[in-house]
Design brief:
Elements: E1 3-13, E2 18-23, E3 29-36, E4 50-55, E5 65-70
Parallel strand pairs: 3-5
Antiparallel strand pairs: 1-2, 1-4, 2-3, 4-5
């Protein structure tokens, strides 16, 4: 089952359209090679920008995707499903 989690962009590779993402709610684990959704503007993908990541249960970066970027403090954003 997939879940949505807050993250922080640590690095971005425009050639592969992937990012390294620090997961805020999973003990600050860093996943490398996480794909970005095609609608995300590459000029907005910078280090320390907050993001929302859809994760698989096994924290596999190849099955995860960054679906949104946002500015602000991650703890201010409340998630309810």
């Amino acid at each position: 089952m997939n879940r949505l989690e807050r993250g922080l962009i640590v690095a971005f590779d425009a050639a592969t359209w992937t990012a390294s993402v620090e997961l805020v709610e999973s003990g600050h684990i860093v996943l490398a090679g996480v794909r970005l959704a095609w609608h995300i503007d590459s000029t907005q993908v910078v280090v320390d920008v907050h993001c929302m990541v859809v994760l698989s249960d096994d924290l596999n970066p190849t099955t995860s995707v960054v679906v949104a970027l946002y500015h602000g403090v991650a703890s201010e954003l409340e998630l309810e499903f």
